[in-house]
């Protein structure tokens, strides 16, 4: 039995008859906050550069995957094998330059191919901005919207352009953001909420422009 097989068996035992009452009553919804928390703790471990801490936090993230898969298994929907199988198929499908005969010229082609394949897989998405989680922290979501728009060729509003005096390194950017946060706090403003609101407004403007460019048949010109 591999270590992963043993982990799956332990989880099934914890959630099975005579197991842990707390584990047994959990649902996908009740576990959702832990997924977010463990992801943040993993990032913290990565940035700390501590292998022991990193291994522990990777285990905690894996626990969430195994936990959710066991809930689905007990309900007869899918199991961890199904999760792994679907992921393997997706990785092969989205890397035709590795597993098929598609030629690429650098990372730019890889990203473009990935986006094109993803659009073909998810035809129900009307916008290049669909699929960006609303629960992302405001700054991370703003960056995601801007980068996704750039890859899709959507023109960003002029006020989002980089100022000549903008920070050029992450250290400078961090200090500039901290100064903005301090100024907001001193004025009683909520910086996180302000950025969420501004990002929603930007996203709506981009979506409107995208829809207008797609033509009357609704087929986006991307």
TrEMBL record:
The lineage of its organism: Bacteria, Bacillati, Actinomycetota, Actinomycetes, Micrococcales. Residues 26-99 form the NTP pyrophosphohydrolase MazG-like domain. Pfam families: MazG (PF03819). SUPFAM superfamilies: all-alpha NTP pyrophosphatases. It comes from Agrococcus pavilionensis RW1. It comes from the Bacteria. One of its GO terms (molecular function) is nucleoside triphosphate diphosphatase activity. Transmembrane segments: none annotated. GO terms for biological process: dATP catabolic process; dGTP catabolic process; dTTP catabolic process; dUTP catabolic process; response to stress; TTP catabolic process; UTP catabolic process. This is NTP pyrophosphohydrolase MazG-like domain-containing protein.
């Amino acid at each position: 039995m591999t270590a992963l097989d043993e982990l799956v068996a332990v989880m099934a035992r914890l959630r099975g008859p005579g197991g842990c009452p707390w584990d047994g009553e959990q649902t996908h919804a009740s576990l959702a906050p832990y997924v977010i928390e463990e992801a943040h703790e993993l990032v913290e471990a990565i940035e700390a550069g501590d292998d022991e801490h990193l291994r522990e936090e990777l285990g905690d993230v894996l626990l969430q995957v195994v936990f959710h898969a066991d809930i689905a298994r007990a309900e007869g929907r899918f199991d961890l094998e199904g999760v792994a199988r679907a992921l393997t198929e997706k990785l092969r499908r989205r890397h035709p330059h590795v597993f098929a005969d598609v030629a690429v010229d650098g990372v730019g082609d890889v990203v473009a191919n990935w986006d094109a394949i993803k659009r073909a897989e998810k035809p129900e998405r009307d916008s290049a901005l669909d699929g960006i989680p609303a629960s992302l922290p405001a700054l991370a979501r703003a960056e995601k919207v801007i980068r996704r728009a750039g890859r899709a060729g959507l023109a960003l509003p002029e006020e989002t352009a980089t100022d000549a005096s903008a920070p050029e390194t992450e250290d400078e950017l961090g200090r500039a953001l901290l100064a903005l946060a301090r100024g907001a706090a001193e004025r009683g403003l909520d910086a996180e909420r302000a950025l969420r609101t501004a990002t929603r407004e930007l996203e709506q403007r981009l979506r409107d422009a995208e829809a207008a460019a797609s033509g009357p048949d609704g087929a986006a010109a991307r």
